[in-house]
Amino acid sequence: MTVTESQTEPLTYGSDRLAQLIADIGEGALERERTGERPFAAVDLARRAGLGALRVPLEDGGGGATLRELFAVVIALAAVDVNVAHILRGHFSHVEERLRLDAAERKRVIDLALRGAIVGNASTELGSTPAGAFTWQTRLTPDGDGFRLNGKKFFTTGTLYADYAEVLASNPEGATVIALVPTDRAGVTVLDDWDGMGQRATGTGTAIFEDVAVSADETLQFAPPETGTEPELYLSGAFFQLYVTALEAGVLHALRADAVAHVHQRARSFTWAPDPTPADDPLLQREIGEIASAAYAAEATVLAAADALAIAYEADVARTDPNLDLAHEASLQAATAKVVVDALAQKAASQIFDVGGASVVRQAHLLDRHWRNIRTLASHNPSSYKAQAIGAYYARGTRLPGSGYF
User: Fold this and answer.
1) Is the separation of the CB atoms in 360 and 248 below 8 Å?
2) Residue 226 pLDDT > 50, yes or no?
3) 16-117 and 139-221: same fold?
């Protein structure tokens, strides 16, 4: 498919171009939230700037960012528009996974990212199959030299804006197969039917695949597990989960900025306030201080877990982690980060309403968007399951589940 060419010079971490891109994406984000406008233009900015190639190595023409730097960028982007940051989750995961594969797959994903293409997620299905189980109603069946793809996916975050959809399906033998198909191919329909209370503009709705032609070179099959069960997915699961936690960290930074702005916008305080000027009120300063501290702690926690994930990725590429001990540690840190950040973020999202009187809840400010977004993000694989698994590991040595959600 035709994709707008990204700029020749790679977009790099810490550059003025990257800072400007993030600022440009944030421009008008509040108005988009107010009107329900979808951020197609903002995603196009990321596409043209080559943001999707941030993790492609420098020697291959990409931005050469470390995993820690990627997550720092996700946090910064989420602080200005958490919807756009979330939209790119499937893309960055796609790049991360395929950079660790053989030379042919590496070249394929590098070429895709360098030309500015964006990949969306199409894995989860609604139904009675337990979440996280690698069993798909979506089918990929042989058709001559290629295949035909049929099925329906939900929670397809980012696919509404993407050039490609990464679809998980079952082949006739029941093995899991990944198909990477252009979103404008005949038979592909992406609906904007996500009705969540938060993350409203992420396109986290339905994607339908009806007799879609798929060539052999557009597929990738998981290696058959030796034990008869699905392979453990600590690495991909940790990345996906940590990415959502990074989004929450970004919203915490937005909460801090909005709390400060609101204090300075207030023309009066209560007659019994310790100081008549809101910005000088020690009680309001305390609320802001706690929100700012939560933002700091959340970012530090996410970046520490990103470091553990980077170590596990390097070991996976070098094949020096056969027992998945480093991969399990990355999963453990991602799960722990979620438990901590979920609690900090939900508390801070309520604290912002204590920075002002009744006027702070007016729709003109849209401060409720932070709570709605955080509550929605935290609902991705509830903390209770993560905390129990962490406790079982420390109490009994039980390893975390090897599903795609850990």
Assistant:
1) no
2) no
3) no
